[in-house]
Give the backbone structure.
Amino acid sequence: MGEQQKKVSIAVIRRLPRYYRYLGDLLKNDITRISSKELSQRMGVTASQIRQDLNCFGGFGQQGYGYNVEHLYKEIGNILGLYKGYTTIIIGAGHLGHALANHTGFEKRGFKLVGIFDIKKEVIGEEIRGIKVRHIDELEDFIKSNKVDIGILAIPKEGVCEIAQRLANLGVKGLWNFSYTDLDLCAPIQVESVHLSDSLMTLSYQITQNSNDE
Amino acid sequence: MGEQQKKVSIAVIRRLPRYYRYLGDLLKNDITRISSKELSQRMGVTASQIRQDLNCFGGFGQQGYGYNVEHLYKEIGNILGLYKGYTTIIIGAGHLGHALANHTGFEKRGFKLVGIFDIKKEVIGEEIRGIKVRHIDELEDFIKSNKVDIGILAIPKEGVCEIAQRLANLGVKGLWNFSYTDLDLCAPIQVESVHLSDSLMTLSYQITQNSNDE
């Protein structure tokens, strides 16, 4: 399967969590099997797209039967690495850091928060959901004695490149970047950015266009 | 320009905020003019891509001169609707709602927060950056007497579809949706979703693939 997955486009990969979400909802509603046609109607995509996407990972459907929901849900979870027991730390205990630390949905999907770091005296020692906020100077020692797979960056863009480099040097595997800058050229580490302002501006473009069309 | 913009693909639109961000950084560094080649090196895309993207909106560059940074910055801001004076309200004053209300970056880009709503007694009347949290029952009256362009949905997915419908009925132009569900089929209104768990799972996929490759 490794060979096949390498060729998968980022567009397909970005759709996988959405399949996972819809299949999870089906399971909750005790739906055990579904045709690509039914799934496509619920998701608002074509059945052919679903078949194509899932074929990138080897299929999973059976002619005339459709998909076994639980099996497909688990397979996609496996492809997404949700059973790897990945651990996270949050850098930045500001408003966004707090919100992310308090978001229990990530743990439901298998991501365990193990540490929170900041530089501001006022927040060091504070506990968020039972996890103590530590000073960023403790980062190296902490990661040497605790497995940390993902660094969640919830700090302003100034200084974030240096933190990205430190985390990469410490063997952290990926960065979930909320700082409003791209880290691609910063350190040799996988980065997934959430640029909230970019998303809001995209919405702004769309409603501006709609108003122009009226 | 309206005619031309209609044909612009979502991929190009999603790159516009990034151009805006890089141009803003150039301006801050007093760089007044830049070639598409220089800009492409900074942004890690090809010069041809930049020229193609900007040509969707009528160009802006001059052969042998490059781009006037301030002019291009303002033009893209204009295309994105950043000078329209769009107003926002946040539905949900939980951790994420607080973080979004306290995020001053959105106002810097022209989006003014005018109201916050919740259903929980404990938070009604609380002030976040000078804005009082109101009960959701006041939504209709508030929007009738205040211009509201964008509804920011920071509530759990249960009940979000009903809120989306109420906001659409009240003439709100767009929804910035943080609830973990798609609202496409919910109400006839422009929706831009930020699915944080999907983004984290995409990162998880990438680091899983990298580990498999080792």
About this structure: Strands of chain B lie at 33-34, 67-68, 87-91, 112-118, 127-128, 131-135, 150-153, 174-177, 190-193. Chain B touches chain A through 61 residues (CB under 8 Å).
